[in-house]
Design brief:
Largest sheet of chain B: 7 strands, mixed
Shape of chain A: globular
Strand order of the largest sheet of chain A: 1-2
Low-confidence stretches of chain B: 378-388
Strand content of chain A: 5-15%
Structural class of chain A: mainly alpha
Helix content of chain A: 55-70%
Mean pLDDT of chain A: 87
Number of domains of chain B: 2
Radius of gyration of chain B: 29 Å
Low-confidence stretches of chain A: none
Mean pLDDT of chain B: 86
Shape of chain B: globular
Largest interface: A-B, 40 and 35 residues
Number of strands of chain A: 6
Helix content of chain B: 55-70%
Oligomer: heterodimer
Number of helices of chain B: 28
Strand content of chain B: 5-15%
Order of helices and strands of chain A: EEHHHHEEHHHHHHEEHHH
Chain lengths: 293, 681
Amino acid sequence: MFPKVPDQHKIGKPLVPNGLGVIYVLFTTVYLFLIYFSGIAKASNGVSAPLTLAVCILFGGFMGLLDDWMDLKWRYKAFMPLIAALPLIYLAIENGLRTSISLPFIGMIQFHEAYYFIIIPLIVMIVTNTVNQLGGLNGLETVCPAIILIGLMVLSQFSYLLLMLGPLILWLALAALNFKGKIFVGNTGSFAIGMTIASFAVITDLKSSLLVSILPYIFNSALILLTIFLFKKRASVSFDGKKLVSDQRRSLVTLITYRRPLTEHQVVALISLLMVIFMSIAVLIELPWPLLT
Amino acid sequence: MVQNGLLSPYWPTPWINTQQWYPDGLDMSGSLPALPMTAAILYNIISWLGVNVDLMAFVSLLPVIFGTFACLIIYFIGKDMGGKAVGLFAALFLALAPSFLQRTALGFFDTEVPGMLGLLLFIFLFLRAIDETRSLRSSLIYSIGSGMALAYFIGAWGAAYFLLDLAVFFVFVLILLKRYSQRLLLSYSLTFGLALFIATKVPYISLGYLTSGPVIPIAGVFLLLCLAEVLRNNISARTKVSLIVATITALVGGFVVMWQLGHMQGIAGKFISVLDPFVRSAAPLIESVAEHRVSAWGNIYFELGLGILFFLAGLYFTLRNPTNRNVFLLLFGATSLYFAASMVRLLVIFASAFSLLAAIGILGILKPFYALLREAPQLAIKSKRRIARVSKEYSGVAIFLVFMLLVTNLAFSPQSGGMPRVYSQAYAPITVSAASLPVVPSEPAQEWLDMLSWTQNNLQSTTVVCAWWDYGYWLSILGNVTTLADNATVNGTQIENIGFSFMAPEQQSLKMLECYNAKYILVFTTLGLGSPTTQQQYQYIASPAGFGDEGKWMWMARISGQARDRFIQTGFIGEELAWTDENTFGSRDNQTGAWQWNNVGKNSTIYKLLSWAKQRWTEVSGGGVVGPDEAGVQPEYFTEAYFAGVDLNPIDASAKYGGLIPLVALYEIDWQKYYTEIGQP
């Protein structure tokens, strides 16, 4: 039932079913509805966290579906996630979440009201789009977000952890299949998981960990956007039948494979490792250090 | 109207109802006639048909029936705009819009009820009237219909200014878009001519309406339409230029002259404050009315949820295809959103624009998927899209996702903890039968009803009962006594005076109440039960819950504080005792946020009236103490006449109202004691 697209980095470019991210979206929505009905996560101050999360992910998936379907223009893709920021802003205000972000080396930045109306929309917009931008290799668009999600879940309270437990297991299954080149999650999956990370971080108030852990993503997007704006050139990686190689450094993938042929799995493993490193830094920062000394 | 004829409030002499806004009374001829007339006519018809129903029950049911009709009409508007599916979605969304449901609920016999009907009927008929694909004959019929609908709307709801100017603005935009046609001129003149002709016959509206600021543009656009008609004909460029110059001069000159001559009536404060919400912060009388509040964006999101997505999509699709109808919808959506953001009450107008646009948005999004779902499966789409082959099932998934988005909006909405507001709204009882508490009791709460039946049985209809204006309608209409103020808020000075009576010390308060021949004074207070203390049996601590006058008195202080100088000059109070706002009476505790009365506050009439009612509750109901731990203060000149709710014990209160206790306290004013002490007047 799923549309098939050719896998560019395999010999013979076999057709692979695409858009399986929709399974994640539907499963997560139903899962979160069930969490809501079970009463495990009570509404606080009149706002229900599982439902807020469900609505954001649903919207992310929907947006990805539109993109898979009709290739949304960049201006829509950049700004559409703002709609999904609404439920998060509402939740943040009603629950009076902290309006400050503490960053390593910089310290605490107090945003006051601007946190709700500027920072949250920015988080949603940047995270969903940067996550969407790092992809194109088998496993890349599924494994890396999974690492960040696991990190955030480690740092969150148990009641929040429960919200994403089922979806994470499903996502890991999809990631395994994706890594093996059996399926693609498509933009549906990629926007949905991006939205998951953004909204989960806002709801659990883990935005500084989020900012540290998505640095590789931001680096990748910055590289891509800068070369497009400055040189009007797009990143592309060439495939010689076995290994990937590139002659420019216009994205994270091309940077890694710059005049250094690597297999697809090697590239994905390297980038995943990078993700793990940054996620570990984020986790280490958050650990209650005074207790350890 | 039912007893004395439809025109009785207006003709031959205006009916001054002295039971409200005593002593001046309420000039009933100065009220908008559409609602009562509609009700009276329909009531007469069903009585004539032999249906025996109480008038009060009938008018309670009317909003529900009208709301249903409004949904039906929006179906036809939607059908004209994008087919049956759009119509059905629009009707569904309107029916499920919380603000619409609230204002067409059982018992909501207010101006919005005929207003919404008139608004939608006008939009439906006017858009058909300017439709050039129709025959001239049907255009004429629709124009007459839309004129009558507009007249009905003007006679129904003060918000008519909005619709008038929206329609005028729409026609103006059509001229700018070079879409002028003779049909437009014809329908416009007929609709507005007829509407204003009928509407100005209403005494309250009168001919002055024509020269009021918001109505003048009708004439201006009419001139422009005439100009466009002339320019359409083959005339020389020179004549064209001079005609344009002449028209502009006439428009500007006419405006200046009217302005100078003072013919431009100022628009009532409420309407100005809609245009510029910041005016309101300076006007506590308007601001204290909850439905006049500026709605925060959160309010709009709370109401619409992620349906905003479909609304935006709808805006996008209408922008892409700017037919005349879509241009109207675009303007309607944008302006009503602006006004709804400015005043909570106007969310109901926005609800109809929202319903239409969201319906168009959903259908626009679903169209390609739906088309594919119906196609034969072997057909592949040829396009440069990345997905080479899309199966039917996959487009089914897309439709299912949209469905799920709607589910989170209409079945379990995150912003209200799961239960969408529309359902909580649907189960919300009429305020009086919930004793004005924010709860949904399983059966009507008796406290207020007991009080109203007590006044009905024990007092005369001419007995003056002073109360804050929130309870005015209940007391005068259901309780059948004479009141000083109600929600009509027609006399700001009188409301200041009532606020003064409550806030001043007893003697000064009586000086004011004397002017109004008041015999009784009523306060309403609510207590919230804390958890029981187990020290001596079960003792509940009840503290002010904030839903009665214990929360409203701040408005009494602010509103009366505005007239501080007047009270001093007219000798009602000395300068040392006068106040400008609530801060004279105490302060808010920084730690707990609870209000701390100071000595001035504890000497105010309202404090004593509230305090004594609470004291009586602890004595009568048993099992409860009042916190903060203050001894009950008995007023000197006010004696207990009837206190409803004092016998409500904590166990019943927990079971019935979730731990809230409504106390309606009616005090008789002891004039004899007062006169003995200060000497006869």
